[in-house]
Amino acid sequence: MTSQLFSPDVQQTLDLIGIFVFALSGGLLAVRKNMDIFGICVLAEATALGGGVMRDLVIGATPVVAFTNLGYFVTPLLAALVVFFLHPEVERINRAVQTLDAFGLGLFCVTGTAKAHDYGLGAVSSMALGMLTAAGGGVIRDVLAHEMPALLRWDREIYAVPALVGSAMVVVLIGAGQLTTASGTASALTAFVLRMLALKYGWRAPRAWHRNGSRTSEE
Amino acid sequence: MTSQLFSPDVQQTLDLIGIFVFALSGGLLAVRKNMDIFGICVLAEATALGGGVMRDLVIGATPVVAFTNLGYFVTPLLAALVVFFLHPEVERINRAVQTLDAFGLGLFCVTGTAKAHDYGLGAVSSMALGMLTAAGGGVIRDVLAHEMPALLRWDREIYAVPALVGSAMVVVLIGAGQLTTASGTASALTAFVLRMLALKYGWRAPRAWHRNGSRTSEE
Amino acid sequence: MTSQLFSPDVQQTLDLIGIFVFALSGGLLAVRKNMDIFGICVLAEATALGGGVMRDLVIGATPVVAFTNLGYFVTPLLAALVVFFLHPEVERINRAVQTLDAFGLGLFCVTGTAKAHDYGLGAVSSMALGMLTAAGGGVIRDVLAHEMPALLRWDREIYAVPALVGSAMVVVLIGAGQLTTASGTASALTAFVLRMLALKYGWRAPRAWHRNGSRTSEE
């Protein structure tokens, strides 16, 4: 098992932090969409666990871990309660939430890639599943909330690309037999830093060439 | 196998009734969205079987039962035909359809919880999967029909909460070694009655505190 | 294994053609929705592989082939690049794209049905999964792009029905012990020709009777 990058206790703690903050983003969208406490819980769960559930389904790791690890399942409910009672305060610390979200992005792209590789998938697929683990929950959140997925909107700072870079580092490290706690942490930090820089400098990905016959047109 | 609450014939009959009426709700939405007969069949199938398919995928019960039990698969097509030819009449008996829908809700939350527990899931996850079995198909229906999921709208009578109560009763009964045909039926009836009461008295779940700075604001 | 209709090399070549053109349709929608290169890649992948992924999940064929066959995974990225740089040209040859799309529809309904049958599913379920393989990716594409699924719109030429006919032929052929390369190809061609005729003559499926009290009303 190469995916055991950290000691079980450390891994569980890091996972729960990432799950908690992903769940916050789901709960906040539910409040913005005027949902009730049940909707807040559903979006919190779907955002926090959806990416990992899809990864586990694709690689055949059933029952999926999101439903067998009680802590994974209960943590989003705690985040939903926090949002229910304190959502103006949570909105106010949006910068901190985005920073923690980037932390989750870095963590889950690394552990998702390593888990997919453990289940026998190749380098490219493992990278894709690492990104799916990190970014898939947000897509499910937006589909359930009847919104255009933020991940696919050109006018948002890049989110999946930092995850892809982190996943690619893990794949290269596995190939070189060099995936350790230190190098895995470095991969996660790289994704984290890229995401924070994207937020700071407004990095976006290019849209198709020749839209309306001219590459320079910007609507 | 604790999930064998009823004799196989009784179970199959109950399941088919629940599937039929869930399929009606899918078909009716398809008509309202002006879909053709094919769309009516797709929404009928998705609404009736979607929750069970998601449960089976999560617990690893593949091939999923919705595709291996011919009766489960064909019943929604019969409901689709009924809607295709008689939808004004079906709309007119809406109260009866809602009552049968509450029956399906009670049945599927109980059998879904028991099946998840049979596959080794814990109490909390089994509850969640029972609710997913009962309420998940309606979410897929709404996503496919490009609508905000009714389950997540604050202005609808509670739907998932009665299912959660039924699921919780099953989990407690399993823990106490007391899940029998009688106690399982009582759990399903509890969910059914709660849903009917919610419809009668307009029960809704609370939305987040401090929306717009005041808990009492109601838009 | 009845699903080995063609020699592995021929099968892989045909599959990659079908995947490429399905991916084009995903990429083109992404451009129309003003997505960036990342969104183009995601919609290309989802459209091309989504149907097969759902089929494999339902029948329990994990890890799903879309993530274990490198060619399947990389081909949509090539299609995404073509769309990114040349989308006006691709839009201009829309007739050719629709023809190739019908080719993919015919191919995937046949191979999807045969694979489902190989995994022990019955005739009706195998037909449904053949259709899901061929048409499911387009539904995922539309859901991700926040559009009403084209497959469910009454004002589009029939798409799934030709696939159902091809799937039904495969099921009958399997039942008669007559599924060969020749008869499988004939099934795929039948679906292809039906889809092309539907496009040429504007074939649509009927909507529910008695809409607004009159069968003849057409809005």
TrEMBL record, chains A, B, C:
It comes from the Bacteria. It is a multi-pass membrane protein. Belongs to the UPF0126 family. Keywords: Cell membrane, Membrane, Transmembrane, Transmembrane helix. This is Putative membrane protein YeiH. Residues 13-87, 99-173 form the Glycine transporter domain. It is found in: Cell membrane. The chain crosses the membrane at residues 12-30, 37-54, 66-86, 158-179. GO terms for cellular component: plasma membrane. It comes from Kitasatospora gansuensis.
